[in-house]
Amino acid sequence: MSFFFIYFFFSSSSSFSVPFFSPLFSQSKTEQRTTVFLNHFRDVAVALLIALRWLTQARWLRHLRKLGSTDVSSGESEQLRNGGAVLALFTDFSGFIITAASPVTSRERYSTMAALFSCCFDCGRASSGHVTLKEMPTVQLDTHHMGTDVVIVKSGRRICGTGGCIANAPLHQNKSYFEFKIQSTGVWGVGVATQKANLNQVPLGRDAHSLVLRQDGTVYHNNEEKNKLPANSLPQEGDILGVTYDHVELNLYLNGKNMNCPASGIRGTVFPVVYVDDSAILDCQFTDFYHPPPQGYQKILFEQQIF
How far is CA 153 from CA 30, 35, 142, 203, 300, in A? Predict the structure, then answer.
């Protein structure tokens, strides 16, 4: 067994074909037959690896297409990313093995085979269009959708001045979670709003385009009080406000504790929203949360896009 391994190792690449071993491997017909057998075995193994590598590339392309689909859930999207990474790693590794296991005298033959497989793969890919995933931007406050007297600092995470601002990512996923930290008290509000909301009008919640918690603990939508925090649970400076939204209800969390204060009524595509006035300063937290999201909820995810 050791003899077969040593011979296969040294015969697999010309860089290891040392003349010292040549007499040893040509002493008998049995060893010559063994040499022929190992060469054929190596040829078949490399050919199968080339075919498997091509199939892996095709599988990877299907992963990219599905990951770019807008109807993929966030959990499935994460699984596809992990699977795609494994497939990509195997594709690169198998290419290295094919090159290393092929002797120089046979590499032209394997290169021709690989070119044929690659041609089939490229032709199939060309017929469906080149698929590339766009790099997802960071979720932050959108300076293109804010009040005229609003100031956004800290890389789109802190708001001050007067007026409101929505985030740059819509809440398309089923269950979203995000946080706000009250750095300085004053007049403020947090919640969700559509792009039709008047971000120069403070407080929000006066029309059908916003649903917000105000600094006095009331939750307003369409100029109606939808709910109210307990009297002993009004947010103070330094507190963390968590917000969940599932396309039906908005729920509020104070320092990680559920306030059992659901509110609903807003329709359409909504975005996280925050407004400030009277020296209030709030920080937005769309990732690296102070408190873990409730079960089933997660950070806001951009939709994957392909072009």
Answer: 79, 71, 11, 21, 20
Instruction: Establish whether the linkage from the previous residue to 294 is cis, with ω within 30° of 0.
Output: no
220's tokens:
């307003």
pLDDT of residue 16: 42
What is the sign of the dihedral through the CA atoms of 119, 124, 129 and 132?
negative
Number of domains present in the structure of the chain: 2
Domain that holds residue 82: 2-128
Residue 292 counted as domain residue? no
End-of-domain residue from the set 128, 155, 190:
128
Give the separation between CA 124 and CA 117, rounded to whole angstroms. Answer: 11
Whole-number mean pLDDT of the chain?
Answer: 77
Q: What is the pLDDT of residues 83-121, one digit of tens each?
A: 555 555 555 555 555 555 555 444 444 454 555 445 444
Q: Which of 105, 128, 151 is the last residue of a domain?
A: 128
